[in-house]
Write a structure and sequence with these properties.
Length: about 450
Amino acid sequence: MPTRVLVPTGALGITFDRVALARGVAAKPHIIAVDGGSTDSGPFSLGSGTSKYSRAATKSEWRDLMVARAHAGVSLVIGTSGTCGTDATVDWMFEITRELAAELGQRLKVARLYCSQPPTHIAKALADGRITPLSPAPEISAKALGAMSNIVALAGAEQVQAALATGADIVIAGRTTDTAIISALPLARGEHAGAAWHGAKIGECGALCTTNPTGGVILLEFDRQGFTVEPLVEDACCTPHSVSAHMLYENSDPFILYEPGGYLDVTEARYEPLDARRVRVTGSRWVPSRYTVKLEGATLAGYQTSILAVLRDPHYVTHAQQWVDELHAYLVCQIAQRMGLHADAYSLEFRLIGMNSALGAMESRRGDPVEVGILGLITAQTAETAEEIGKLVNPYVLHYPLTKDEELPTFAFPYSPAQSERGPVYEFALNHVMELNHPMQAFRLDVSEVGHA
């Protein structure tokens, strides 16, 4: 019998179609799998060990999935719990599950898969030659590893299979590859390995592989030769284009995808429409290799204060880049004179909103907008220093003249004070893989029962 995997959404916390979910449950899936997040939104979630998504939204959607799981009588798996998959966010998700089990009157076996890595363990692996940098990757050392606020290893299908093998009703996994939670059961049931990994890649973001990417819910069916993908929202369909295009999503190579223990090769894959809604894929190939897991780490980069003003005077809009260049040079001198800080003790950056705020110097489009937002970002080693620089910068961002012979200008600002404290900021500090002697070497499982009989 083919293995059916129900994927309700690309990430828990961004909603899904409840009618489509019910349609998926009626299709008798063998498992329900949902992603909890990723590093898409930057390093803050990993650095702080907190979820990007609101607890209320997460709990509301998880409630629906727990009810769906009970109706389907299958396991429910979430990967990369709490956006970053640290031990803290696994426990956060477990607490939500425990609350809901009590509210819903469900008695559940819950397996928690922990993926956080002690810096000392990674330092030992580095010394043993089991750490390999990807490109690009920062230089790392035992000292740098010790300074990281959180390090996680990305679990693959084998670790999720180990959690499922406990007989768990719900698996709450830490950081996993986006494909691991979908591929795990089809692989365990002996379905085609290339199809399992390829279908998991196509289905990782839910309905993003369909003509209605906001619909959320899809059903994947895996067998011994390939897989079929079907959207469950009525006004959506899958096409060979929409399905094949997802290999380009977050992947540097449209034909090769590396996972723990090997890589997926879709060079010979064939995408065929079965009808107006479903696409059948065959020809994918899984190539085993040494067992490595990707490492992600974040470190505290400092504390940040931001300041925002808006230029509307046509003269200043036209010369906005010149204005911020001159303002920056002036402020560096003022900070040195008044605070005794040299430029290497802090970072002061201005971005022109509406001109080059996304790409900076790489921006190729030109044209004069009606107004330009001036976003200043001040980063320092302490929150107090960043705040003090922000207060020093404030009057000049609002009144600095372009030339000495003009009247003192006043620019608009959307709130008062114009500067605001953003708190700690983090940066990614690891882009490496670690070789394991066996898949569970860097991971641990905890199984418990929650709720009431």
